[in-house]
Specification:
The complex is a heterodimer of chains A (631) and B (364).
Chain A lengths: L3 E5 L1 E9 L4 H15 L2 E7 L14 E9 L12 E4 L2 H8 L7 E5 L5 H6 L16 E5 L1 H8 L7 H5 L2 H12 L5 H10 L4 H20 L5 E5 L7 E7 H16 L3 E5 L6 H7 L8 E4 L3 H13 L3 E6 L1 H17 L3 E7 L16 H6 L9 E2 L6 H16 L2 E7 H5 L1 E5 L48 E3 L14 H17 L18 E6 L3 H13 L5 E5 L1 E3 L5 H6 L3 E6 L4 H10 L4 E4 L8 H16 L6 H6 L3
Helix pairs in contact in A: 1-6, 4-6, 4-8, 6-8, 7-8, 9-10, 9-14, 11-12, 17-20
Chain B lengths: L41 H16 L6 E5 L14 E4 L5 H11 L4 E7 H7 L1 H10 L3 E7 L34 H7 L4 E6 L3 H13 L3 E7 L11 H4 L4 H4 E4 L6 E5 L5 E7 L6 E5 L19 H7 L10 E8 L5 H13 L5 H9 L4 E4 L1
Helix pairs in contact in B: 1-6, 2-10, 3-4
The chains are: A alpha/beta (631), B alpha/beta (364).
Chain lengths: 631, 364
């Protein structure tokens, strides 16, 4: 039959199922297909901390949201247009996020009395009119999958497992996605198990064919490729970009990378990725604990490698004393914190930005540490290089604050040419002329950096450690004046980093804004999308985003003073707000959520609108923009 | 799934460390820092022994690194004119692991104490031993906390009255040698601060061993635990207190018989499966235990370690309990990198193909 084709400028799809249903893989494949097709996109995986929570229950629901468009987008979208629900729990857990009129595709196979009870349904929602406000498609995905792969002789259980590929095939048909990348992906992934490989490919193709032939679906949608700056692109997650950024830091500094790490969600993928890149001279040391991870990285840094440790918030807490040692010994070190919900074990698989103050102050004594934060998944690459530049140039540990949303979320990334990347000079100390005394704490004037004298260099034998150092000679010193001087010097060294930072870019197209929205880290996307909505409705608002949180850019104080109102949205209870208020005496307004999820653009637009109304003494009505649903 | 690691056949602990022909003396290894241990501290003797022994290795001084944790003995690196790091409490083995893995051309030493290594740093110690990272760990055991002024340590005997245990400690102590053997140690030895000759011979064997060499050094703290090792040092008592372990020799000690040999011997104990002390007289020569430090099975070494008194030290075996070859972590880690690197491609070209891999698309 001939199907109607409808043009859309953007779509948000959420795949949801049991944590064993392969929803992350399904979402990831749909994303790759969309990326290759040329859409702009942003993704939001959301999964439980339990590897296999009890089957069919609400806590066991795993989902993957992908937002793709024919234009530049900034977030994974606030509310899905399409929900694919593989069981009753997946339907129930996600229904509240759907706007009226959204499309729901359910696998009817799993809507048994038992599964309905597990999900807390008294009655089958597919049989009453509780879903009447939605475009509901009841499809026996499992049954059709089992039928389609019969010829491969798999057990019923194994056959049914290919249902996610059937669903992917159906959605791929519906949105005109290219199928070749997924077929070749499956060929590679299951190369060693031909029957599983063939079953998955067959299920995928059957899903596509089902869409093509069935009368259940009468409309196909088309979302054209988005115009993008010339270049070669790939889709990339934050953790992958961060790992590549670390490899690149090694190449661009000529230093072998040494990662000391202990597995922790959501940072482990960086360890996994780096362990594949031994060809770059990367050593990955899976330590006995978080402390040993950073300890080995400090040892490697002393020995002349680019020392790196990766973790999440609880790991930072354990590493604090060792970070202080790196501050005292003034060794280059990268400390990567992929933040998750806290405190304590908190929400391991959910995102949060609540480690800023830990990064800033979470050590004994005056122990300043520079902080860098990426703003999007692809930006993790450049942020890693920037952190390495600061660490090596200034001989200091640097904290890089990613988060769970950046780590697992993805976006198209323009692959930079290697010649565009900065080079970093380790500038190791060289042997001195005969008779000259080596002073391990004698500083460079411009950077206040001390020499990096690595073992094996004759004549530069010296001892460093956690005890206070005498200025210049670096021997133990308990002298009061020396301690005061050294504390101030370590602070001055970190402050000096600001002198080499570029001016902050403020996006204020009309130049008439009275309200500035200031963010850091992964809130960049939602803030940008919220700002767009407000502007689209005809109002003025300025936006700027901090990559450097310690030290702040030199012009930040001036910029803050130019606006009547400064809004600081954060996924914490106001940590950047606290720092800005303390440093600049500016009465910033916080917008704070700690729900383990990214901020929503529509919510931020309302908050910004409210502030604009207050600052300009006008009525603000955002309705026209909301209708167009720009993201 | 396991992979064949195809490990390099390295044997000496200093095989890849550059050497020098220039004569060295203890003075070359003495830094300009004033040594600040208490008068009479056993640490002085060990420092002297190490400064006297290092020149014998003939290594380039700049290729030697001493790492310590926190405690009295951890001041050690400041007094040696090599590269050194006085790090944080208990973490020296992890820092040394990073150094040793990063650089095959360094001779890496860890100086630690009973509190540093066995209490706060216990985890790092056992994992360094398990991995067999090429380093030598000198554990100064004075059975007390000195730097914090006299609390009991994880090797203090039960019942010990200290500042923090006025009614006597209720902690059961570790036997460091048993612990190291249980942690898969490939070189485990014990020596005494006051016996410079024995100390030097053990250090020499430890440095020559490829892998983690663990050396427990009984060290007297004259301030907070004076006399803890007196039985092993007293002219009248030491013959009965020290059970000397020498590879390939019968294990004998005690007041000498007419033939000059010890009056007590070790024999296997059929009842426990361990070893026991018996009078030499009346024992068949063939039944006397001959020390085999190279045995692949650590059971006998462990049984020997149990002859150490857990309370006040009246008897203790001294010497090398175990010395076996086993692949080291750092050699294996470097071998994987060498294999992966293969023929040296330009790193930037490699980087370009890495980040440009995967599914890509081009916008013109």
């Amino acid at each position: 039959m001939t199907k109607q084709v409808k043009q859309l400028d953007r779509v948000i799809i959420r795949f949801a199922g049991d944590s064993g249903d392969g929803m992350q893989l399904t979402g990831d494949r749909f994303t790759q297909e969309s990326a290759v097709f040329g859409n702009d996109l942003v993704t939001l995986p959301n999964f439980p901390a339990e590897i296999r929570a009890p089957q069919g229950t609400l806590p066991g629901v795993s989902s993957f949201q992908v937002h793709f468009a024919d234009h530049d987008i900034l977030t994974a979208g606030d509310a899905p247009d399409v929900l694919v629900a593989m069981n009753p729990a997946a339907l129930r857990a996600n229904l509240g996020d759907l706007p009226k009129g959204a499309t729901i595709i359910v696998d009817t196979h799993d809507f048994t009395a038992r599964n309905l009870t597990k999900a807390g349904y008294q009655a089958n929602p597919l049989e009453d009119d509780s879903l009447s406000e939605f475009a509901l498609h009841k499809v026996d995905l499992t049954g059709m999958t089992v039928e389609a792969v019969k010829e491969f002789g798999l057990s019923r259980k194994d056959a049914a497992r290919a249902k996610n590929m059937f669903a992917l095939g159906l959605l791929s048909w519906m949105y005109g996605r290219p199928t070749d990348p997924t077929v070749s992906f499956l060929e590679k992934r299951f190369a060693k198990v031909p029957d599983i490989r063939d079953a998955n490919i067959t299920a995928f193709k059957s899903g596509w064919n089902f869409g093509e032939t069935t009368e259940t679906f009468v409309v196909r949608y088309e979302v054209k490729p988005a115009p993008m700056a010339p270049g070669t692109y790939r889709n990339i997650t934050g953790n992958l970009a961060l790992a590549y950024g670390l490899v690149a830091s090694g190449v661009q500094s000529g230093l072998p990378v040494f990662l000391g790490s202990y597995p922790i969600t959501p940072a482990s993928d960086i360890l996994h990725e780096l362990s594949k890149h031994k060809a770059f001279g990367v050593t990955t040391f899976q330590a006995e604990d978080e402390i040993a991870g950073i300890g080995a990285a400090i040892g490697a840094a002393f020995a002349g490698h680019l020392g790196v440790t990766t973790t999440s918030g609880p790991g930072i807490a354990l590493k604090s004393e060792a970070i202080g040692l790196a501050v005292m010994t003034e060794l280059p070190l990268l400390v990567i914190d992929v933040q998750r919900g806290g405190p304590s074990t908190g929400l391991p698989t959910k995102t949060e930005q609540a480690d800023l103050l830990q990064a800033m102050f979470g050590r004994n004594g005056e122990a300043p540490v520079p902080i860098v934060a990426p703003q999007s998944p692809g930006d993790c690459f450049g942020a890693a290089l920037e952190a390495a530049r600061i660490a090596i140039t200034y001989r200091t540990p640097v904290m890089l604050l990613s988060d769970g949303y950046l780590a697992n979320g993805s976006e198209p990334w323009r692959i930079p040419g290697v010649d565009e990347l900065p080079t970093i000079d380790p500038d190791f100390a060289e042997p001195l002329p005969e008779g000259e005394e080596f002073l391990p704490y004698q500083r460079e004037e411009a950077t206040l950096a001390r020499p990096w004298a690595i073992p094996g260099t004759p004549g530069l034998e010296h001892r460093i450690g956690g005890l206070e150092k005498g200025d210049g000679h670096g021997n133990i010193s308990y002298d009061p004046a020396n301690h005061d001087f050294m504390v101030r010097t370590r602070q001055a060294k970190v402050d000096r980093i600001a002198e080499a930072l570029p001016p902050l870019e403020v996006d204020d197209p009309s130049g008439q804004a009275k309200v500035l929205v200031l963010g850091w880290g992964s809130t960049y996307g939602p803030i940008g999308a919220g700002v767009r909505r407000v502007r689209k409705a005809g109002y003025h608002v300025a936006q700027t985003h901090l990559r450097h949180l310690n030290p702040f850019p030199r012009d930040l104080g001036d910029i803050l003073s130019r606006y009547d109102k400064v809004l600081v949205p954060e996924m914490n209870l106001g940590q950047l707000s606290l720092l800005l208020r303390a440093k600049y005496l500016v009465d910033v307004v916080g917008y704070n959520e700690v729900r383990g999820l990214p901020l929503k653009a529509a919510v931020l637009a309302d908050v910004i609108g409210g502030l604009v109304a207050e600052a300009e003494g006008i009525e603000v009505d955002l309705t026209p923009a909301t209708k167009e649903e720009i993201a | 799934m396991t992979a064949d690691l195809g490990l390099p056949g390295l044997h000496s602990g200093v095989e890849l460390v550059p050497t020098t022909d220039a004569p060295q003396t203890g003075k070359d290894y003495t830094s300009d820092q004033e040594v600040r241990w208490c008068p009479g501290c056993g640490d002085y003797a060990v420092l002297k022994a190490v400064q006297g022994f290092l020149p014998e290795l003939g290594l380039r001084r700049e290729n030697i690194v001493f790492v310590s944790g926190i405690g009295c003995s951890s001041r050690f690196p400041y007094y040696l004119d090599t590269y050194g790091m006085h790090s944080i409490h208990g973490r020296a083995p992890s820092i040394a692991t990073g150094i040793a893995t990063a650089r095959e051309d360094l001779s890496v030493w860890v100086v630690t104490g009973d509190g540093d290594a066995l209490s706060i740093g216990g985890n790092h110690l056992i994992h360094a031993l398990r991995r067999n990272v090429n380093m030598t760990i000198l554990l100064f055991n004075n059975r007390i906390y000195g730097l914090t002024k006299g609390q009991y340590s994880p090797t203090s005997e039960a019942g010990k009255v200290t500042k923090s245990t006025p009614m006597g400690s209720v902690d059961h102590p570790f036997n460091p040698v048993s612990l190291a053997l249980g942690a898969e140690g490939s070189f485990v030895a014990r020596t005494i601060d006051s016996d410079r000759k024995h100390l030097t011979s053990v250090l020499s064997a430890a440095a020559a061993h490829r892998g983690t060499s663990f050396v427990e050094i009984y060290q007297n703290c004259p301030i907070f635990n004076d006399g803890a090792f007196d039985a092993l040092k007293g002219a009248d008592t030491k013959a009965d207190a020290i059970i000397p372990l020498v590879h390939g020799e019968q294990i004998r000690f005690g007041a000498p018989l007419e033939d000059g040999r010890g009056s007590k011997v070790l024999v296997r104990d059929a009842g426990t499966g361990g070893v026991k002390v018996v009078a030499a007289s009346g024992v068949d020569e063939a039944d006397i235990l001959v020390h085999d430090a190279h045995s692949p099975d650590p059971s006998t070494a462990f049984a020997l370690s149990r002859l150490t008194d857990a309370g006040y030290l009246n008897t203790s075996p001294i010497g090398i309990f175990r010395q076996v070859e086993r692949p080291t972590y750092d050699d294996a880690a470097r071998a994987q990198i060498t294999t992966a690197q293969g023929e040296g491609a330009d790193p930037q070209a490699r980087l370009a193909s890495l980040i440009g891999g995967g599914d890509t698309w081009t916008v013109v």
